[in-house]
Write a structure and sequence with these properties.
By secondary structure, the chain is an alpha/beta fold. It contains nine helices and six strands, in the order H-E-H-E-H-H-E-H-H-E-H-E-H-E-H. The protein binds zinc ion (ZN).
Length: 277
């Protein structure tokens, strides 16, 4: 009589079934890990990659406009500073040129007279956040609050309701800060010619002549320098020397000076309004 095959023991059919269950669990785990990896990658790309590509595109667009129309916008970040800002203003007045100052909210306190001096001489004021936070390294809410606070401090001081142009600290935005800027219609201004006037391992690699050559070759640019107070005065001389060279070369080459608003407004006519001394 044939014995029914109900016992586990000696049942050749059970072992492969148990093995395939293990195998499918492993496969399921692998799929889970792959899915999680893809999710993280997609999230990271959306959070940092998309804003990065947008900023690259924006910089390219602004660079092309400067070159094709032979414009130069002089921009100064992180100020105002007690020593450099007045010296820069004097130099710009000598040449009758207007520039744009992207000020840091925390540097405005105690230097309100410098902010007014910049505005009174016809220059443009933009914001550079309050605390110079890197939007890739802090929570989006903090980065947005930093941008908002920087705007508020300057708008209150300048008694204006207008949004001020913004330069992102370190040139970086994340998805949420970018959406905030776009929703609030805050114009973003990048730079295309770095004078490298910072005290880092990459600084000092350019001198006035290198910058002059870069400007002659490109035919237009948004230059970046810094007017905050540094320890020591070595960089003050560097900033003023490179600025003097840039002013002279741009004039020789017939490159016209624009402010950031004139640059960002595609339809704006370049006013060429001379700076008030
Ligand atoms: Zn900065």
């Amino acid at each position: 009589m044939e014995v029914p095959r109900t016992s586990v023991q000696g049942d050749p059919g059970r072992q492969p079934m148990f093995g395939s269950t293990l195998e499918s669990t492993e496969k399921g785990d692998m799929h889970g890990v792959t899915f999680l990896g893809l999710l993280l990658f997609a999230g990271g790309f959306l959070y940092l990659g998309v804003p990065y590509v947008y900023i690259r595109w924006l910089r390219h667009r602004q660079d092309r406009r400067m070159k094709t129309q032979s414009y130069i916008a002089l921009t100064f970040d992180d100020g105002p500073g007690f020593r450099l800002t007045p010296a820069i203003l004097d130099l710009l007045s000598e040449h009758g040129v207007r520039a744009t100052f992207f000020m840091l909210g925390r540097n405005v306190q105690g230097r309100e007279h410098l902010v007014r001096a910049v505005a009174d001489r016809g220059h443009e004021i933009g914001t550079h956040s309050y605390d110079h936070l890197h939007s890739w390294k802090v929570w989006p809410t903090r980065a947005i609050a930093d941008i908002r606070r920087g705007q508020d401090v300057l708008r209150r001081l300048l008694k204006t309701e207008d949004v001020l142009p913004f330069r992102p600290p370190y040139g970086k935005v994340n998805l949420f800060t970018l959406l905030f800027l776009l929703c609030k219609r805050i114009p973003i201004c990048m730079w295309t010619l770095d004078t490298r006037d910072r005290n880092t391992w990459r600084a000092k690699s350019r001198d006035g002549e290198t910058i002059a050559e870069a400007l002659r070759r490109s035919g237009g640019a948004i230059s970046l320098a810094h007017d905050f107070d540094r320890t020591g005065t070595a960089f003050d001389d560097y900033v003023l020397t490179t600025l003097r060279t840039t002013l002279e070369v741009a004039k020789e080459a017939g490159i016209r000076f624009v402010t950031v608003t004139e640059l960002l407004d595609e339809h704006a006519r370049v006013s060429g309004v001379p700076v008030r001394a």
